[in-house]
Design goal:
- It contains 15 helices and two strands.
- It is mainly alpha-helical and 364 residues long.
- The chain has a domain at 2-51 and 58-120.
């Protein structure tokens, strides 16, 4: 609603800026003048006036094709400019494309072509098309900004890692962060520590190397002592327990990302070999079946992983702890409905916090 000069009230739909009204009126008059000029040219050169004229009209001195064609082309261009002023603002862009379309319409269908365009715009305004994707638009990918991490009040581990990878942070702050993450699991920090081995700051490189080396040496020492125990074992119970211990230790090297390349493959083979040896003595060791299943998943052998984990379930391994690995194996096998079914069986209460987004995604 808005108030008119006379003091009365009128609906907002009737509010039209005076300048727009004058422009529309001027464009309409211009279109009529151009149309009249085009008709005059057609009457002069096209023979339209001869049929009803009482007095014979002499033939034009030139061939009528070119004057008529020129009148249509020039008149169409003039009408295109004028018709564009009558279009709604959103239909005036792109400018060149709109003018070209109007020029073609007005040239080949004088006057009527522009009216058809205006009628189409009015139709589109009154009965717009319904499109389901109107509410969607392309947006750029978000970019992580490290210098804003200090303002976040949660996720201390993420802030420490952000301070470490940001070389613009003071060296003392980076060293403090590196010392702080030593208490975090190597499984989480292993990749970051390996990246820090190429850090430009020497102290950072030394601490990262020392942390990785200490974690690897600790497991290597346990493997050495377990191997000595296995060599000295004389009964099946000791051998089974030692093979089980060795399988777990080798698997820990793989799980914590402490070995890479060819050493990674060798370590994985050793873990599977000792797990097989432990199962050869005691087939009912459900934990060893799970180790073999997870090793098979690590190599992409989904069928073998599913078989091993099914055996673990048969021998009493808790199902809720096996479900994530069974779901991963089903996903690798392309059984997506089975994956959703397994994850949905966990429920919100049984799922670990890290699995909640996965469960929610596959349950929706």
């Amino acid at each position: 609603m808005y108030r008119l000069r006379s003091g009365s009230w009128a609906p907002s739909a009737l509010r039209v800026p005076p300048a727009s009204m004058l422009a529309a009126l001027a464009s309409s008059v211009g279109i009529a003048i151009v149309a009249a000029l085009q008709y005059a040219v057609l009457a002069r050169f096209g023979g339209f006036a001869q049929a009803g004229a009482a007095i014979p009209v002499s033939a034009p001195p030139v061939a009528p094709l070119w004057p008529v064609f020129g009148a249509m082309v020039v008149g169409g261009a003039a009408q295109a400019v004028l018709y564009r002023q009558l279009l709604p603002q959103r239909y005036r862009t792109p400018r060149n494309g709109t003018l070209a379309a109007l020029w073609l319409a007005c040239t080949f269908v004088p006057v009527g072509g522009g009216l058809v365009v205006l009628a189409s715009c009015a139709w589109a305004a009154c009965w717009p098309a319904k499109q389901g994707d109107d509410a969607y638009a392309d947006v750029p990918l978000p970019e992580f900004v490290t210098y804003l991490v200090s303002r976040v009040s949660h996720g201390g581990g993420a802030r420490l890692q952000a301070r470490l990878v940001n070389t613009r942070v003071a060296a003392s702050d980076r060293l403090s962060a590196l010392v702080a993450i030593q208490s975090m699991p190597t499984r989480t920090t292993g990749t970051l520590l390996r990246d820090l081995l190429a850090d430009p700051l020497e102290d950072v490189r030394l601490i990262a190397y020392g942390t990785l080396d200490r974690a690897e040496n600790e497991i290597a020492q346990n493997i050495f002592h377990a191997q000595q125990t296995l060599d000295a074992a004389h009964d099946d119970a000791t051998r089974q327990a030692t093979h089980r211990r060795l399988a777990e230790l080798y698997f820990e090297l793989v799980y914590q990302n402490l070995v890479l390349g060819a050493v990674h493959g060798h370590t994985r083979e050793q873990a599977d070999r000792h797990a097989q040896a432990a199962l050869a003595i005691d087939e009912g060791d459900a934990a060893m079946w799970l180790v073999r299943g997870r090793l098979a998943l690590a190599t992409g052998h989904a069928d073998a992983a599913m078989q091993y984990m099914s055996r673990a379930l048969e021998w009493g391994f808790p199902r809720e702890r096996l479900v994530p690995w069974l779901a991963e194996a089903a996903f690798l096998r392309g059984e997506y409905s089975r994956t959703a079914e397994l994850l949905a069986s966990l429920g919100n209460a049984a799922a670990l916090p890290v699995l909640n987004p996965v469960v929610s995604y596959w349950s929706s």
